[in-house]
Amino acid sequence: MxxxxxxxxxxxxxxxGLNGMGLQSIELYYQMPKELINEATYIxxxxxxxxxxxxxxxxxxxxxxxxxxxxxYTTIIDCLSRAxxxxxxxxxxxEFERLHIPALPMYPSATVLLANVDGSSGHIDKASDIKTQxxxxxxxxxxxxxxxxxxxxxxxxxxxxxxxxxxxxxxxELEKIANELIDHGHVFDATWNFVVNPHTxxxxxxxxxxxxxxxxxxxxxxxxxxxxxxxxxDANRIHHFYTNGQCSCNDYF
Length: 253
Known about the structure:
By secondary structure, the chain is an alpha+beta fold. The protein contains eleven helices and five strands.
């Protein structure tokens, strides 16, 4: 692109971020003409930093941002929460709430993430308080959906849904994979692809929500055990799980 515009720059910065190339996102961001930088640009570069574990760089960029929007705050809170800087994340949430009431319903994903981080770190009371506030705000939680293609047909799966006509086969495959993973210390929800193509070498899955830590760890193991590459496009980024048990995100997601 000879003369990139706002959309071109934002697309490239976001693409770097989705593929775990946070430093390249930052480099391109600083090369942008200042008059082209807008809210979308800030969100893309902050998100790229978040998913590469670049907390210091995130804070440095955030301090230079002159506009305050709920989406920008959501992104920086998300970054701090992922890096376990939950005290700082909580302060930013409280700061934004004071200035932009009511704010909690505006960033449920970051709120849930912060609550989960507090809970996993032993701060049960803090996690409970945050989830109580979210519940009282009447914010609706999105239903987890996933799509995959087998034999040129798209299949959709919903969390806790057993309506698929071959659900008994899926459950049987689940138990088979679970037994394999128990030997490695993990249990995982099975995938439809192994039912249709037991010896498949590549699987592609699309999710409407962010992949959770347990699923991420288990998918790495499944890719290694079954020697099958698994590509997962979730709400935040693309994960490429390789047959050596590693993920392209380097565990920043």
